[in-house]
Amino acid sequence: MIFDTDIFIWVQRGNLKAAKLINNAEQRFLSVQTYMELLQGAKNKTQHKYVKEFIATFNFTVLPLTENIGHRASIYIEEYSLSSGMRSGDAIIAATAVENSLALSSSNTKHFKVVKELELKSFKP
After folding, report:
1. How many domains does the structure of the chain reveal?
2. Residue 112 belongs to domain with CATH number
3. Could you report the per-residue pLDDT of 16-69, keeping only the tens digit for each?
4. H-type helices in the chain, by residue range?
5. I need a labelling partner for 4 at 20 to 30 A (CA). Which of 32, 38, 76, 83 fits?
6. Full-prediction pTM beyond 0.90?
């Protein structure tokens, strides 16, 4: 399963349900977009270190941005940005999940529900 950025934020806030979701996953993936968002949200080097250690401790695989992911994400923006307000970061995360045939776990389902080929797993904190 690939995890949206919001799942990590719930864990950082102490949400045990989010932590259990990650802990119980057989395989853990995140888009390079999510990785960058987590680092960007850090306020200092200690928080950067925490993000990196968390990803390493739980054996997350960071999936790179490929040409196919970039192409698919640009199609999502063309199709959904005007009608549904899809943003580029969400398009990259959704495209990463679809291109790697992975389900996406997110509590922000409104950001992703328009993508028909995406297997979306709703997380309710």
Report:
1. 1
2. 3.40.50.1010
3. 999 999 999 999 999 999 999 999 999 999 999 999 999 999 999 999 999 999
4. 5-12, 16-24, 32-41, 45-57, 67-84, 88-99, 109-112
5. 83
6. yes
